[in-house]
Design brief:
Radius of gyration of chain B: 16 Å
Shape of chain A: rod-shaped
Distance between the termini of chain B: 32 Å
Strand order of the largest sheet of chain A: 1-2-3-6-5-4
Number of domains of chain B: 1
Number of strands of chain A: 6
Number of helices of chain B: 9
Largest interface: A-B, 21 and 20 residues
Oligomer: heterodimer
Distance between the termini of chain A: 53 Å
Shape of chain B: globular
Strand content of chain B: 5-15%
Helix content of chain B: 40-55%
CATH class of chain B: Alpha Beta
Order of helices and strands of chain A: HHHHHHHHHEHEEEEE
Strand content of chain A: 5-15%
Order of helices and strands of chain B: EHEEHEHEHHHHHH
Chain lengths: 350, 214
């Protein structure tokens, strides 16, 4: 239950209670005793307050605090219209009812409510003292019983409010924890899926080697191993936090090829440009593939102009050609000239 | 003709001087002087050498661009030979008026060709320099035609002019003339220098480039 629900329910319940008290309990008293005409004005004023509060509850808007003036005025009118010596007797219909009205109007404002109630009680006591003929014991019982019941209701609503607040906080925290958990799971899943997608040639190769379907004695298997090694090395480099990730990935691929004995020269021109991970993958892939199967010499170049990023490889590796075409934002062009493969991946930055 | 080419090498590493001396001797280029101080290019036999091969980092941290400027303003033909390959310094050396810029990663073949070209007052554009020109994003860069850009990029990527010629289906001399035109366009911008003026003037005389292209 939220704070708002507590407030609405409290007002609805109080409205019913006040309506019942005014109509069933108090109306017969007003009629039965010889009050002055001001008593009917007070009764009418209170009825008007009930109508306004009912309107506010129906429209789901807060009850204006200044409305509390009306019950206080009614308190004065009803008390002064009492027959002589009738304070705190059954004829004093206004004392209890005004208290309920103040509760109805100010239930969301405890400090103002206590102040208004005090003013109301003080006035009633003062009037009682002025008359000077009533029984103090009876008056005390009436004041205590009426007021303590009303203050009891106030305390109960405050407790409900506090509990609702705590419950809402606990619920929000629980929701946040669940969201965090869900996000972490999603992230892990993405990472796993990403790695599986990236591992490409590696998993089938490992499976084949494990099942002894292929042998490392074969040249083809060694080539597959070489391709997988470059892919894996690039994948490791992908998430490194470096100033120039594209160059970092290129260097990683070159490194693997050099370990295989290929003489690779890497030329870089232009300043570092931000390249999305997906695009970087596509830019590096053709060059990585060519390097993996290159023998002898290879030349890798990275060129960054104002409008383009171009990764090219010229290598002695005509057996396996990187596929030409367009994947996403990257255009790959591969050609063979006098035994040398040239493959270039281009990405327009603008 | 080749016998007449003389050069002086300024480099603070004896092993580099020895290596360059050996490379040049195999190409019939006479090394008349060498040393770690730029003074060797101004006095003695070095003062009359046709080409100065200048290391940009002579011991200090700051590149020796002021030495390069003095030499160029005196009309000397300079080939810069440097460890550094960052584009900014490369373009700055061209702007001052160096006829070529080679990184030490580039081998004997490029150095010999650069020195021979410089002796004739010609530019030479090795692959790394081509890359720097292709990646040039400065506001003052000259407008290159799509073909010129493509030649530049392909030469940077493949390091083989024969490969570029095959790829673009043009002759070797067309590849060279594209590279020359690009260098003339670069020579026509920025500060004035005798070597740059000579490059432009000769290109116009030879009909390699029109005034409208500059």
């Amino acid at each position: 239950m939220t704070d708002h629900t507590v407030a609405t329910t409290t007002r609805q319940v109080l409205l019913v209670v006040v309506f019942a008290i005014q109509l069933v309990l108090m109306l017969p008293l007003v009629v039965a005793h010889p009050h002055g005409p001001a008593a009917w004005v007070a009764y009418g004023l209170l009825t008007a307050v009930m109508a306004v509060v009912a309107g506010c509850v129906a429209a789901a808007v807060p009850t204006p605090a200044y409305l509390a003036v009306a019950p206080l005025v009614s308190s004065v009118l009803a008390t002064t219209a009492l027959p002589a010596g009738a304070s705190f007797t059954p004829a004093d219909w206004g004392f209890g009812l005004v208290g309920w009205y103040l509760l109805l109007v100010l239930v969301e404002r405890p400090v103002a409510l206590v102040a208004a109630l005090s003013a109301h009680i003080c006035f009633s006591i003062a009037w009682f003292a002025r008359e000077g003929s009533g029984d103090v014991g009876t008056a005390g019982v009436v004041i205590l019983s009426g007021t303590s019941f009303q203050l009891g209701v106030l305390v109960v609503t405050r407790v409900l409010h506090r509990d609702a607040g705590l419950a809402a906080e606990a619920a929000a925290e629980h929701d946040a924890a669940r969201t965090r958990e869900e996000l972490a799971r999603q992230r892990e899943q993405d990472l796993r899926a990403g790695f599986e997608g990236q591992l490409g040639a590696l998993l089938p190769l490992l499976a084949d080697l494990a099942d002894e379907r292929v042998s490392v004695a074969d040249q083809t298997t060694r080539l597959r191993c070489s391709v997988a090694a470059v892919q894996l090395r690039r994948l490791f480099a992908e998430n490194d936090d470096v100033p120039d990730p594209l160059l970092h990935e290129l260097t990683a691929c070159v490194d693997v090829a050099e370990r295989r004995g290929v003489v690779v020269s890497l030329a870089v021109s232009g300043t570092a440009t931000a390249v999305p991970t997906e695009v970087r993958r596509e830019l590096v892939a053709p060059m990585a593939q060519a390097l993996a199967v290159a023998h002898g010499r290879a030349k890798v170049s990275l060129l960054r102009t104002a409008t383009e990023v171009r990764v090219a490889v010229v290598a002695d590796a005509p057996e396996t050609l990187p596929a030409s075409g367009r994947t996403g934002a990257v255009t790959v062009e591969t050609s063979v000239h006098s035994g040398l493969v040239r493959s270039e991946a281009r990405w327009r930055t603008t | 003709m080749a016998d007449d080419v003389t050069a002086v090498v300024v480099d603070d590493h004896p092993v580099v001087r020895a290596g360059v001396a050996h490379w040049l001797s195999t190409a019939d280029i006479e090394l008349v002087a060498s040393g770690e101080d730029p003074g060797v290019a101004w006095t003695g036999p070095g003062a009359s050498a046709a080409v100065v091969v200048l290391d940009l980092h002579l011991g200090g941290v700051a590149p020796a661009t002021s030495e390069l400027r003095k030499l160029v303003e005196d009309g000397r033909r300079v080939v810069v030979y440097s460890m550094r390959a960052d584009d900014e310094i490369v373009l700055q050396c061209l702007e001052i008026g160096a006829l070529s810029y080679l990184t030490k990663a580039e081998g004997a073949e490029h150095l010999v060709q650069a020195v021979k070209a410089a002796a004739e007052g010609q530019s030479y554009t090795p692959p790394a320099l081509a890359g720097a020109l292709a990646g040039d994003r400065s506001d003052t860069r000259p407008a290159l035609s799509p073909r010129e850009t493509e030649v530049l990029v392909e030469w940077f990527q493949s390091e083989s002019k024969e490969f570029v010629a095959q790829r673009l289906n043009i002759t070797l001399s067309t590849v060279n003339s594209h590279l020359e035109r690009i260098r003339v366009k670069y020579a026509a911008i920025g500060r004035q220098a005798p070597t740059k003026a000579a490059l432009v003037a000769r290109a116009i005389q030879d009909g390699l480039i029109g005034l409208d292209d500059l």
